[in-house]
TrEMBL record, chains A, B:
Name this protein carries in UniProt: DNA-binding HxlR family transcriptional regulator
Signal sequence annotation: none
SUPFAM superfamilies: Winged helix' DNA-binding domain (SSF46785)
Highest taxon above the source species: Bacteria
One function term, GO molecular function aspect: DNA binding
Higher taxonomy: Bacteria, Pseudomonadati, Pseudomonadota, Alphaproteobacteria, Sphingomonadales
Keywords, ordered alphabetically: DNA-binding, Transcription, Transcription regulation
Ranges where the HTH hxlR-type domain occurs: 1-97
Keyword Transcription regulation: yes
Database matches in PROSITE patterns: HTH_HXLR
Length: 113, 113
DNA sequence: CAGTATCCCGTTAGATACTG
DNA sequence: CAGTATCTAACGGGATACTG
């Protein structure tokens, strides 16, 4: 369970699932949509999701090549929780930021590093 | 947002929040409840959650010392999404496991190392 | 009890270069 | 386009020892 949570909860996995919630996407679309992800990490993330049965990978042998990723039914069942989490983060980002500044300022006062 | 997700999505944070969903807990209770966490990681995780305003830390200057951790309102607002995620994992663990074995077996066939 | 302080190693992720 | 391969710096996290 720890291991599954670590994988599902992984930031790249969450962002990828959020992207795929909008429907089938190509590799390059995902990379453009997920800010900051490297080619390597996108590949590894997609392989992991595929392995866990959350995503299917379909290759079109055209030139140039084209690969499409789609959520499986299992993957879609994960949408609700994951999107809820994502929305929570977006909604509460300002409050977290404030809390951090307060915490850091207090640490500073106590003789911060 | 990436950074917040990375922190929230962290396995220890999720498990800690799940533990604290049951109410206020002492340091040692948390350590016993979260299987596999080290003293160091529990301390670091709690500091992070405290910094982000999700958890409060209350020290009782008794002998022996006693420290209690409680979810803040912000932390409690995170309960729903986090617990939903945890429940999804528990509910779908078998299916994920099956998918993995299938995937690994297929890789094996294709000459997987 | 509830930490803090070190040491240290394995994994991870970013950058870069190459390919079917 | 959609990867794979390789190298390396950074980080995570365990073990251990010490303390208010």
């Amino acid at each position: 369970m720890r291991e599954i949570l670590a994988k599902i909860g992984d930031k790249w996995s969450i962002l990828t699932i959020m992207m795929l919630s909008g429907g089938t996407r190509r590799f390059s679309e995902l990379q453009r949509g997920i800010e900051g992800i490297s080619q390597r990490m996108l590949t590894l993330t997609l392989r992991g999701l595929e392995r866990d049965g959350l995503v299917t990978r379909e290759v079109f042998p055209t030139i140039p090549p084209r690969v499409e990723y789609t959520l499986t039914p299992l993957g879609r069942s994960l949408q609700q929780p994951v999107i809820a989490l994502g929305q929570w983060v977006v909604a509460n980002l300002p409050e977290i930021d404030t809390a951090r500044r307060r915490f850091d300022a207090a640490a500073e006062d106590r003789g911060g590093n």
